[in-house]
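Reply to dn_fold:

You asked what the input looked like. This is it:
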Amino acid sequence: MDRAQLADFLRARRAALQPEDVGLPRGPRRRTSGLRREEVAALCGMSADYYTRLEQGRGPQPSEPMLAAIARGLHLSVAERDHLFRLAGHHAPERTSRADHVAPAILRILDRLQDTPAQVVTDLGETLVQTPAAAALLGDQTRHEGFARATVYRWFTEPASREVYPDEDHDERAATFVAELRSALSRGGKGSRAARLVDDLLGRSEEFAALWARHDVADKHVRTKRLQHPELGVMTLDCETLLDTDTGQRLLVFTAIPGSPDGDKLALLTVLGPRRVPASS
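and this is what came back:
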């Protein structure tokens, strides 16, 4: 780990970012040319003290997940992300399996949607980054690890995850998640993460195994979704999808007609704050 070069690199990338680049207001009294350390720390999902120590060359060696978070927070390109990993004493992630790296252009779009439920997901339904409104609607889906990062995996292994959808829609949602997973497997093939996830679920869930045996295939998210919030009730929302053809990632944006009952409910999300997801039973 090259602490001095890592510190220099982080400072340089922070100075190169402006508040407008990441969806933050500039404010009339800003003296810093780029972002403040605490702003970058918040974007990366870490404490300001931890990030400051890295910039001062006195922090511990960051883990690979922490480096991935820093790469997203600083809007690094793939080449810059690889450089960051090497400075921190890690091998750069393989370019052929870079599904966790969100392109800076996609992040810039997301930064301008902070009051709108929006999130970036992989082709396996793993949420990489969310707006505050998306966390209020769906809960913090970026906190999971391992196979549990995938929505389809949580659906069949964590009963509490189903509470996002009305009970009467559960059969349809289960079938859709399985069909989308089969499509992901056809793209990834044997030995892929999708294949390993399928093998694990087949050994854990009879419901999944029965649906998997149907060989249904679906290649994209449905346009309209009914979502259930513990305080706001059921909302029927449009779900627009922007596909990044380089990575297979999808930017999902949830909207409703302004002034409609569902639109009024969406407007309340940022007031309510992040949704609390109950522990699995």
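The two ends are 42 Å apart (CA to CA).
Hope that clears it up.
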